Amino acid sequence: MSQAQNTSNLHYSLSIPEPHNHYVKVEMEIVAPNKKDVQVSMPVWTPGSYLVREFGKSVERFEASASGKSLPVTKTNKNTWSIAKGKAEKIIVTYWVYAYEFSVRTSFVDADQALLNPSSICMLVRGMENTSGTLGINLPGRFSRISTALPKNTEGYYTFQHYDELADSPIQIGNHQEWTFDVRGVPHKVAMVGIHNADKTRFLKDLKTVCETMTDVVGVHPCKEYLFIVQNVEAGGGGLEHLNSTVVVMSRLNWKDESKYKSFLGLCAHEYFHLWNVKRIRPVELGPFNYHEENYTEQLWVAEGVTSYYDELAMMRAGFVKPAQFLATLESYVNDLENRPGSRVQTLAQSSHDAWIKEYRPNENSKNTSISYYAKGLVVAALLDAKISTVTQGKKNLDDLMRLLWKRYYTEKQRGFTVAEFEAAAAEVAGTDLKAFFDKHVRSLETPEYQVIFSEAGLTVNIKTDQRQVSGMTTAAENGKTVVKFVESNTPAWNSGVNVNDELIALNGFRINNDADDLLKKLSYPGTSRLLISRGGIVREIDFVFSTTGRYSLSLGFEKDKKSPALEKWLGKIN
User: Fold this and answer.
1) Which of 96, 21, 85, 27 is closest to 58 using CA atoms?
2) Domain boundaries, the chain
3) Does domain 472-545 have CATH number 2.30.42.10?
4) What does DSSP assign to residue 412?
5) 3-state helix/strand/coil string of 16-56
6) What was the pLDDT predicted at 568?
């Protein structure tokens, strides 16, 4: 791609000489006349995915020069290079990035496409994080299209106002399709990457409905244009939000499966709502970003849990699911949460703060010791929505809180909010003190007030504890063996000493073929049973005492012929 002469103080040029070899060549032009030394760093993480990923590990062949002469370079830590530029005003930095990790958080290049997340490709210049700049892309000969939310200038370069904008603007390169539609006068594009069996007309119609439904929450659209990058893959899913775009993943032949199609629409709703919640309405810790280490906050439940709640709510508001289906989904979230041992170990605030070491690094014991701020955040968002609707007698709901946060912190103060400010805003909308609500549901291990809050909002609520016969272990068949994958705390398997990775061979002399629970129910006698296992290649017998275990069960319903202003404000008119 031929482009005009660059005139900015910070310019990136990206090229992919041989896509099948998975390398991106990056050239940076840096104009910094008042600096003797220039430091450039590769981020260690990408916003929206709270895990240190060490993008610097993929950097190779780092060089710096001025006026054609090499400059001394020192690598000062794992992700930073220091360049002794002397009196040179403009320097050229060149390096290569190996990009062959496919996910929404990383960069991937092969013979068919290039999905570039700039936070894993483009280094930042220390001290110039707020400097505007330009980006040029040299298209490989076999590729014909570039899709990104970055705007272009008159010279044909992509532009950014600061590094945060560049880092938050994924780039799709290839021969993909590009579809368009409008939402409230804002142009939207869909980059459809890879082979798929989607119905274009139906998908664009439904996606437009999703986007309009989400826009209605706050009532103001923040973008000049928006981009969905849809990666159609053999198997998989997931998405990641960005400032004016998103990358979402869909199994290429699942478009005709109604359940999976609606699930994908829900994913799109989730990432799209991040346009408001997280990218603009945000905890104060989430921007401007520190790209060199973890950015801790106790409010990821607001960022992700509230968004997860709204993607489920939007599917009902848009007519894709019925109110009874929405309640069933809410029930499943509550029951999964209450039957997870970690709910009695980790608070919602702790889950948010420890995302960097727990949420994205689960192990075989995680369910016993932690919760998801997505899942419990959704539940608490539903409780907060119901609570606000009730105490205002149907005059306000969670939408009003999102609008207040938008106006006060994004529009007026132009910053994020603290924990105290978020909770004060919620109390302001509700017209009553909510400290006890947040203390109980966010900062304590107490069981949430499902019965009180949901029934006061107009739902029927039935909560019981069922005594069920369960072993407390999850197994999988591997090469003809039954292997333990999870042992739930305070269950028969846990108390009997079963370990993850044990191979289960027999129970009371009967062979186990990945049917341990069924055999336990049939063959366990009062008292102690004998479980034959192999652990580390050594066969042994252990005593197994089978017993019943309590399982929490909540069910929600609509009262017949009873209309509640709070319920109607919360969930809309129920037919």
Assistant:
1) 96
2) 10-174, 177-273, 300-465+554-571, 472-545
3) yes
4) I
5) CCCHHHCEEEEEEEEECCCCCEEEEECCCCECCECCCCCHH
6) 96
Furthest CA-CA distance within the chain: 85
Whether the CB-CB separation of 189 and 150 falls below 8 Å is answered with no
pLDDT tens string 255-276: 999 999 999 999 999 999 999 9
To which residue do tokens 């103080």 refer?
9
Contact between residue 428 and residue 391 where contact means Cβ atoms under 8 Å apart: no
Cα angle value 159/162/166 (rounded, 5°): 60
Nearest to 2 by CA among 133, 107, 155: 155
Cα distances from 374 to residues 278, 301, 377, 480, in angstroms, run: 13, 6, 5, 36
Q: For the chain, list residues with pLDDT below 70.
A: 1-7, 524-526, 575
Cross-strand pairs, 182: 187
Question: Distance between CA 57 and CA 53 in Å, rounded?
Answer: 9
Indicate the fold that domain 10-174 takes in CATH. Answer: Immunoglobulin-like (2.60.40)
How is domain 177-273 classified at the architecture level of CATH? Orthogonal Bundle (1.10)
Please give the structure tokens belonging to residue 352.
């948010």
* Tokens linked to 455: 């029934």
Backbone phi and psi for residue 102, each to the nearest 5 degrees, phi listed first: -85, 120
Alpha carbon distance, N-terminus to C-terminus of the chain: 57
Per the CB < 8 A criterion, the answer to whether 179 and 190 are in contact is yes
323's tokens: 């109110």
Nearest Cα to Cα of residue 42 among 107, 104, 120, 98 = 120
What single string gives the DSSP state of each residue in 493-557? HHHHT--TTPEEEEETTEEPSS-HHHHHHHHPPSS-EEEEEEETTEEEEEEE---EEEEEEEEEE
Residue 49's identity, in one-letter code, is S
Name residue 466's beta-bridge partners. Answer: 551
Q: 356 φ, ψ to 5°?
A: -60, -25
| Fold classified for 300-465+554-571 | Neutral Protease; domain 2 (1.10.390)
Tell me if residue 258 falls in helix, strand or coil: helix
Extract the tokens encoding 527.
């008292």
DSSP 230-252: EEEESS--EEEE-SSEEEEEEET
- Residue 161 CB coordination number (10 Å): 12
Q: Which helix (H) or strand (E) holds 463?
A: strand 459-469
Q: What pLDDT is attached to residue 256?
A: 97
Please count the CA atoms within 13 angstroms of the CA of 265 that sit on its side-chain side.
Answer: 32
Three-class SS state of 146? strand
Q: How far apart are CA 356 and CA 75, in angstroms?
A: 26
**Interatomic CA distance for residues 169 and 118, integer angstroms:** 7
Q: How far is CA 407 from CA 58, 288, 415, in A?
A: 41, 19, 11
Q: Which two tokens stand for residue 115?
A: 């999905």
Backbone angles phi, psi at 553, to 5 degrees: -140, 115
Domains 177-273 and 300-465+554-571 share a fold: yes
